[in-house]
Design goal:
Elements lengths: L9 H5 L7 E3 L2 H10 L3 E6 L4 H11 L2 H10 L1 E6 L4 H15 L6 E5 L5 E5 L4 H17 L1 H18 L11 H14 L16 H14 L2 H16 L13 E2 L7 E2 L2 E2 H18 L2 H18 L9 E2 L2 E2 L2 E2 L4 E2 L1 H8 L1 H11 L12 E2 L11 H18 L7 E2 L2 E2 H21 L5 H29 E2 L2 E2 L2 E3 L2 E2 L6 H18 L2 H17 L32 H16 L2 H20 L5 H12 L2 E6 L7 H9 L5 E5 L20 E6 L2 E2 L6 H8 L1
Parallel strand pairs: 1-3, 2-3, 20-21
Antiparallel strand pairs: 2-4, 4-5, 6-7, 8-9, 9-14, 10-11, 12-13, 15-18, 16-17, 18-19, 20-22, 22-23
Helix pairs in contact: 4-6, 5-7, 8-9, 8-21, 9-10, 9-11, 9-22, 11-12, 11-16, 12-17, 13-14, 16-17, 16-18, 16-23, 18-19, 18-20, 19-20, 20-21, 20-22, 21-22, 23-24
Length: 679
């Protein structure tokens, strides 16, 4: 029976025609397992996952596997992106049982959802043996199976517990976190750790804010070097922009080709802020092209941003992206083909598979002679046109609330940066930048409207939508935090009070429904579906943890409104994260970034002016704003904008008001006086 045909998840739809009698995650599936007295297979993955596709082709499309699963199990298919709560519970169980985790995730449970055997990818022969073994154990060693399940539940209950030690997140702790990151930094290749190597976007944001607060040259150099290494590597799409999920090696050469919305949103923020602080032309170029990638490749008109581009094309990883020297010559001609091979590091031996190479920037061309730069850009355009004739990776079109929130915040910062920079490049570059900004701004506003009108249902946030139709899964803490932060960013960019009102509604719901004793938060609401344990993971992973996301939103909202209640909630939640920041800096980057903002004040900057986009005071305020500062510009007493209330122009001139932690300095009317207050 095909129970997945009406799913909103492209991942579930990919499995709708399998010979496996799949169920979606639902109470009825577990009731059926109890009725038949069989174990449950919970298979968790996502649409852009390469090894999920491999296991699907090898096993779930196989008639023998389908027969064994249908006869001896109830099989449930879960999209981890739609149900991060389910994924979190069973990922914790998988890590507790095996010492590692990943996707596809393969979990066997009892009829009440208690896991008793966990794993990840299994080749077909191994999976067939596993099905036989689990079935035999269920029939003949039931007591041992149940004891194992009880032990796993006890272990993951402790792992997900809230409470524990708390401490203020002090300057000393944040300095120690920066030092810890410096100690784990790969000074040769950039980033942290070895293969596989993931873009450390949240750590980069934290280090940029640490540099801005302390003046640390070391923190800035880690960010600059890592951003350059990633942007010149194969993990970055040298033709169309956008970053792949991770590099399979330690030097950013060969990516795992899926492109995720959350990675690119967070990396757009990092490159934009590096550009803001240093004027680095490479950072400016990458920020521009990542914004273009989001707007061109992931934006769904009238909706929000799609979740991902697939790792595979027609079942082959990298088919769209890899090249041989001969293919470059075919696309460009002999001279430009050789130029491109040298520029992009394409060799006869290849850097990928079957003599193919992933394009990387093997030469430093951002500061090259204008003629060389023009040739590079022309070659890249022609190669992209040739690549567009190849089969293209599938796109996961579902709109995830949290990830759209991250994209909105990133684009808002990018748009503000472009508005305040002035024309500093060549005319063609400036024109391209302005064009990208217009399109990205429209996509950002589209996404924000979609979240506000489609994902908000009866005052509560829903996790996903597709084709304009909202899905059933309830929003988790990550969704409330990232969307509230995005609405705060929209308020700052547009000066419209409704975005701030919406952010406040989301945060008040989070405080009422997700808060835990002692200042922490659960990842699911108190009235959400009850799983075997209530997840409350405080660590950042691929995207910000729910707790660090809600803290970032609380900090911004408190600064924009003057609400001490929301600031105190942020401080209490950060106190639950502080011990982790001190010990596990690589997995608390977003929390550390929020901590840097709170430690610096954050600054609250209001510029009363009739020209919010073009006033030099606004440009100076943004360019010199300390970590996590909020900035609003507009006419005095603009409705719905607390920072502009009771703040007149001085002598009829545009005027800046700078406050820090609710304590204000004298209003100023010149750029020099404003910069002096911010530095």
């Amino acid at each position: 029976m095909n129970r997945l045909a009406e799913a909103t998840s492209p991942y579930l739809l990919q499995h709708a025609d399998n010979p496996v009698d799949w169920w979606p995650w639902c109470d009825e599936a577990f009731a059926e397992a109890r009725r038949r007295d069989v174990p449950v297979l919970v298979s968790v993955g996502y649409s852009a996952c390469h090894w999920c596709h491999v296991m699907a082709h090898e096993s779930f499309e196989d008639e023998t596997v389908g027969r064994l699963l249908n006869e001896g199990f109830v099989a449930i298919k879960v999209d981890r992106e739609e149900r991060p709560d389910v994924d979190a519970v069973y990922m914790t169980a998988t890590q507790a049982m095996t010492g590692q985790g990943g996707w596809p995730m393969t979990v066997f449970t009892t009829g009440d959802g208690t896991p008793f055997f966990c794993g990840t990818y299994f080749p077909k022969p191994n999976f067939l043996r596993l099905l036989e073994s689990v079935g035999t154990a269920w029939r003949e060693q039931r007591d041992a199976v149940l004891r194992q399940g009880a032990a796993v539940v006890e272990a993951i209950g402790g792992a997900q517990a809230v409470g524990g030690p708390t401490a203020p997140l002090t300057a000393e702790l944040l300095d120690a976190a920066a030092d810890q990151l410096a100690g784990e930094y790969d000074a040769t290749n950039g980033g942290f750790g070895g293969a596989p190597k993931f873009p450390p976007h949240m750590n980069l944001l934290a280090l940029l804010r640490h540099h801005r607060r302390t003046g640390s040259g070391q923190s800035l150099e880690i960010v600059r070097h890592t951003c350059e290494a990633m942007a010149r590597g194969g993990i970055y799409d040298q033709l169309a922009g956008g970053f792949a999920r991770y590099s399979v090696d330690g030097h950013w050469t060969v990516p795992h080709f899926e492109k995720m919305l959350y990675d690119n949103a967070l990396l757009l923020r990092a490159y934009t802020q590096l550009w803001r602080l240093t004027g680095d032309p490479l950072a400016a170029r990458v920020a521009r092209d990542v914004a273009r990638f989001l707007a061109d490749e992931l934006h769904r008109p009238g909706e929000g941003f799609a979740s991902a581009l697939d790792a595979d094309t027609d079942g082959v990883e990298g088919l769209t992206y890899a090249w041989t020297p001969a293919q470059l010559v075919e696309a460009l001609g002999e001279d430009d083909g050789r130029f491109a091979a040298d520029l992009f590091g394409v060799t006869e031996a290849g850097t990928f598979e079957h003599g193919m190479s992933v394009l990387r920037l093997a030469r430093d061309v951002d500061d090259a002679d204008p003629a060389v730069r023009a040739r590079w850009q022309d070659v890249a355009r022609r190669l992209l046109a040739a690549r567009d004739t190849r089969p293209q990776p599938a796109r996961d079109d579902k709109v995830v609330a949290a990830w759209n929130g991250l994209a909105i915040t990133a684009i808002a910062e990018f748009v503000r940066m472009v508005e305040t920079r002035g024309g500093t490049g060549e005319e063609g570059d400036d024109n391209l930048l302005e064009g990208v900004t217009i399109v990205a701004d429209g996509a950002m506003r589209d996404a924000a409207e979609h979240l506000a009108t489609v994902h908000l249902v009866d005052g509560r946030l829903r996790r996903v939508s597709r084709d304009g139709v909202v899905g059933d899964p309830a929003g988790v803490l990550e969704d409330y935090g990232c969307v509230a932060e995005a609405f705060c960013a929209m308020h700052q960019l547009t000066g419209e009070g409704r975005w701030l009102d919406l952010a406040g509604q989301l945060l008040d719901t989070a405080l009422a429904r997700f808060a835990a004793p002692g200042g922490g938060f659960y990842d699911t609401a108190d009235d959400a579906e009850q799983l075997i344990t209530r997840p409350a993971d405080p660590t950042d992973n691929a995207s910000p943890s729910g707790r660090s996301a809600i803290v970032a939103a609380l900090v911004a909202y408190a600064a924009l409104t003057g609400s001490t209640r929301h600031r105190e909630a942020a401080e209490a939640a950060l106190a639950t994260l502080a011990p982790l920041v001190g010990r596990h800096a690589r997995f608390t980057g977003y929390a550390a970034a929020a901590g840097e903002a709170l430690l610096s004040g954050p600054y609250e900057i209001a510029v009363v002016t009739d020209d919010p986009a073009g006033d030099p005071l606004v440009a100076a305020a943004y360019r010199h704003a300390p970590p996590g500062a909020v900035l609003v510009a507009g006419r005095p007493d603009q409705p719905g904008v607390p920072l502009l209330a009771d703040r007149p122009m001085v002598d009829g001139r545009p005027t800046a008001y700078v406050c820090r932690g609710f304590v204000c300095r004298r209003p100023v009317t010149t750029v020099d006086d404003l910069v002096a207050q911010l530095t």
